[in-house]
Amino acid sequence: MFDEMDEIAQDFDDQIRQARESAGLSQKDLAQQLNEKASLIRKLEQGNSLPSDDVRTKLERALGIDLSAGGSTDETEWSGGSSSGEYTLGDVVERKD
């Protein structure tokens, strides 16, 4: 279920605000364009609320932005174990006897 969902960027609030301001839109104007409430736009820009998938899609299309988390964070995929790409519990757990 969650495999299909992209993670949202940590700075989604700043991205939304900057894109809206660059487009010359007020929060109310953007909300009307998206058929959403201005209070939702305010909460998103303050980082007090995460956008639903539907709202996220609307924002990305309307503002021409990508709110998915990029690969530039400190998080890196773990690599190791067998060369076949399959791991067992023994590959990642160190046993204490």
UniProtKB/TrEMBL annotation:
SMART domains (UniProt xref): HTH_XRE (SM00530)
Superkingdom of source: Archaea
Region (Disordered): 68-97
Keyword field contains DNA-binding: yes
Pfam families: HTH_3
Gene3D superfamilies in UniProt: lambda repressor-like DNA-binding domains
Cross-referenced SUPFAM superfamilies: lambda repressor-like DNA-binding domains (SSF47413)
Record's compositionally biased regions (Low complexity): 70-88
Gene Ontology molecular function terms on file: DNA binding
UniProt keyword list: DNA-binding
Statement: the UniProt record of this protein carries the keyword DNA-binding: yes
Domain HTH cro/C1-type: from-to ranges: 16-70
PANTHER family for this protein: ENDOTHELIAL DIFFERENTIATION-RELATED FACTOR 1, ENDOTHELIAL DIFFERENTIATION-RELATED FACTOR 1 MULTIPROTEIN BRIDGING FACTOR 1
The protein's name in its UniProt record: HTH cro/C1-type domain-containing protein
Organism listed in the record: Haloarcula pellucida
